[in-house]
Amino acid sequence: MLINQEEKINNNISPLMDPFGRAISYLRVSLTDRCDFRCVYCMSENMSFLPKSDVLSLEEIETICTSFINLGTKKIRLTGGEPLVRKNVLTLIKSLGSRIGSGLEELTITTNGSQLSRFSDQLYEYGVRRVNVSIDTLKPELFKKITRWGNLEKVLNGLKAATKAGLKCKINAVALKDVNEDELQNMIEWAHNEGHDFTIIETMPMGEISEDRTDQYLPLSLVRANLRKKFTLTESEYKTGGPARYVKIKETGGRLGFITPLTHNFCESCNRVRLTCTGMLYMCLGQDDSANLRKELQDGKKGIELEESIREAILRKPKGHDFEISRRASGPAVKRHMSVTGG
Ligand code: SAM
Ligand code: SF4
After folding, report:
1. What predicted TM-score, i.e. pTM, was given to this entire model?
2. Is the CB of 112 under 6 A from ligand 2?
3. How far is the CA of 171 from the centre of ligand 2 (A)?
4. Could you give the CA distance from residue 278 to residue 290 in angstroms, rounded to a whole number?
5. How far is the CA of 41 from the centre of ligand 2 (A)?
6. Could you read off the pLDDT tens digit of each residue along the chain, which spans 343 residues?
7. Ligand 2 contact, 156 CB (< 6 A)
8. Which atom of ligand 2 is nearest to the CA of 337?
9. What DSSP state is assigned to residue 267?
10. Domains and CATH numbers, the chain
11. Is ligand 1 within 6 A of the CB of residue 277?
12. Which of 131, 121, 56 is nearest to 94 (CA)?
């Protein structure tokens, strides 16, 4: 489909629109499928990673991100795998950061925190102001058990370095039945006391992980009901442009987010698409349809031509996902791991 010039100018003023009238202004980019942890809900321990030749170069990622920014993308979140283990990642962060204020409004990162001691000062220098740090427990032994390869002390030191550098840190924790279920209240108190927002995520059925997901699944409706016994929760209108719904906690004065893809469908307000480290653009985290932007680059497309391919892909964005975790569901809803699409 060729877009005439007048239409293009109009479209450049308004953000990318999907067929359901949702403005797409948020791009999440997985920089690598590799990680220095092996979280039990995310990967199997002997995970095999993609050959490096399948992964987009940092220059290719930058080209695609630039096209998105030209098409009205306001927010880019770098994720993975672990984005900060990608070689020379700071080069990309520096060049994307230079677009903040000229098209891009915000560049953020979701990280396991293992590299924050090394990188926080430069992240701030290049324009990053907020990071999400994933921490599922504050018990060192349990942390080791959940992440298999992680070290809690290193992550907490990274968190301190990030805070010192001026980065606003939000803590993300996946709710795991019988694992960190009883600890969530303490973790919320700790996070709020340290000045961090806290978000609880429901496990999503993505990729084979060598464990039974029905054993891990803890509906957040249950978590919320338990927290209500300890805390006074009041609904909040606060929004970060992400899928979390927030409440304020009277006792701590802090904010608590819930990401509930299974018990509460968040699709109606979806404003994002996801680019994998192999250059596949997924219009929905929970559906398999994708556009191969790496192929477009290999075919020599850039600038307006690449932007047209992105527009066409957005026109295929589905209404919502079909996640379900139940005894009846025999395998994952989508075969790719969260680390490939980017959480
Ligand atoms: N490595 C980084 C990290 O852990 O923050 C970024 C990538 S990770 C895939 C992004 C987020 O997705 C993390 O908060 C992680 O806990 C979450 N996640 C991974 N697999 C998940 C799953 N199957 N269901 C729900 N959340 C998941
Ligand atoms: Fe790595 Fe993040 Fe997946 Fe854990 S959740 S294995 S830290 S990508």
Report:
1. 0.90
2. yes
3. 14
4. 12
5. 9
6. 444 444 444 444 456 998 888 899 999 999 999 999 999 989 989 999 999 999 999 999 999 999 999 999 999 999 999 999 999 999 999 999 999 999 999 999 999 999 999 999 999 999 999 999 999 999 999 999 999 999 999 999 999 999 999 999 999 999 999 999 999 999 999 999 999 999 999 887 666 666 666 677 888 999 999 999 999 999 988 777 677 889 999 999 999 999 886 555 567 778 889 999 999 999 987 778 899 999 999 999 999 999 999 999 999 988 776 655 444 444 555 566 666 666 6
7. no
8. 3
9. G
10. 5-169+270-341 (3.20.20.70)
11. no
12. 121
